[in-house]
Amino acid sequence: MAKNLNTQPESLFEKIWARHVIVERAPGPSLLYIDRHIIHEGSFHAFAQLKERGLSVKNPKQIFGVADHYVPTNSRDPKEAVTGEVTEMILRFDDNMRWSRANYFSISDPRQGIVHVIGPEQGISLPGLTITCSDSHTSTHGAFGAIAFGVGQSESCHILTTQSLWQTKPPCTRIELQGTPGPGVSGKDIILAIIAMLGASGATGQAIEYCGSALQALTIDDRLTMCNMTIEAGARFGIMAPDDTIFDYLYGRPFAPQQAQWDAAVSNWRKLFSDEHAQYARTLSIDVSALSPMVTWGTSPEQALSISSCVPAIRSGDSSADAAMEYMGVTAGQPLSKLKIDRVFIGSCTNARLSDLQNAAEILRGRKSRVPGMVVPGSMAVKRDAEALGLHKVFIDAGLEWREAGCSMCVGINGDLANPGERVASTSNRNFVGRQGPGVRTHLMSPAMAAAAAVTGYLTDVRSLTKE
Amino acid sequence: MRAFTQMQGVAVTIAGKNVDTDQIIPARYLKRSRTDPQYADYLFHDLRFNDRDEANPAFVLNQSAFRGASILIADENFGCGSSREAAVYALEAFGIRAVIAPSFGDIFFNNCLKNGLLPIRLQQVDIDLLLGSETVRASDTLDSLSPLHIKIDLETCTIQSDLIHTAIRFSIDPFWQECLIKGLDEIDLTLSYQSSIDTFETEHLANSPWLTHAHK
To answer: Which residues of chain B does A28 touch, with a Cβ-Cβ cutoff of 8 Å?
Structure first.
């Protein structure tokens, strides 16, 4: 490859992409080097492919395994899993990870947690990297200035054995966030508003770069939440330029550059920003000060509205919206705040980091939840930090369950499910039909909003519960 | 990978935008091996069967005319959501060889390509043309249509149906077209670039030595 004396202005995404192209086959996909790849229990298909073909894991040090999807959250013993078949899934992952010789955080490891929570926490997610994981919410790690994307099992197998992947460079949409979010408005509310604006397929085939003054003011956890749910607008990638907040966070993390290498890495990372005249497929601007706390009313994350809204009237002939309304048991014109909930779930790779739990605890402190529910920390490290702050007592005193780390009721495959027909206030990322159990109605919202719903038993504007 | 050159078969229409992979295969079946003889039943399981596992006669795949369908026609953003490749395994187990939609979830689209299942992006106007009528846009009425026979040729990138006179053209990245037509194994293809990968990697890891550091 010829060295590129590039004077063309480039976006952040293009800069990182260019640094990872092994073989370019324009037009069409390029062979892209993958710096770090993360896998979970669902990887058994990829391992089966590898073993069947007599292939091995090429670079075990660049592969990370963590048990999160199937693990029980009421115990750290795989034998306590919901069924014997699930126990077997967890144990099979143990075997495959031993075989791979890769980095592994098993269910009993103190570093265990949800893939997208432990990535940043352990310094696995770093600026300028290409990061893949066999999970669609891998876009999360883009909040650290990385190209991070979800892959399927065949792609995962390909990465495990070649440390590379054929990928077509996506066009990039730039979203500039301006203003200051008002009280009760978090990263979750901003991203739900963006998904509602773009639509569930509004950015399909694209990357979304977030920038602007409002972004710099957001916490790391809020930024991670936004990139996490970028996939719900169709975009496989969300990306944000890394700044000192990120560098400070990463300093000393186990898998981040150490000692002498740290300064060199940071000076390299400081070059990770979009050039002034970089080209984008489109540019949008949002004033976050105009936003209110958001909730979803339907069965797609795009069906999100401000909590003060009513269920919208549907266009005639829109069978999808019609079906969503029927499934959710809502009618046009019904105020969202009149919807009575049966259960609350605070957790998931979207909203189970320490500040998420703090935001929920702030609302629940000294109050009781009117409905049953569980709080599931995103990682065992988050759990320890939350307990050091006494947050677990707040949740338990409110009547909620305090669990061990895992994906839990976001996807429900570990058996943490709601009952058919129940309406759940959930901090997770998908309100799909049956996602939290057959017939279960999921309303997505921020941790503070979920806590407010728990307190009143209805979808509630959290601002009505906070004092000035 | 199984090669895809041309095929013909019965097309079935699945109604609704944003049909996510949770609908294509519910999460509780993800732990099953691909060799599970029941795999075809997991496709759209909770739409096809009730909680007592009885077939829902209203669902299109349960209608006798469509049980042997091998082409699926869907709406916008088909296969969005979870990256579960099992969605493709379930389609394949049922006998689906090609999916036609105005747009697809990105990860699902790629997963199709890796399994010899042809995803075809076609504008809605062309899909309407293929279905032979603008008057049957309301998807729920499509179910009651008599089965439509479609012929797909990947070499010429054309689709024919018994309702239209001229073939409809579609486009696909030439790289994936070639992989599918030849049934190329992608890992073998990549390994043919091994020396390029090694050269790249040596320099890349020298610049980022922490990527391969041992940790306790």
So the answer is: 173-176
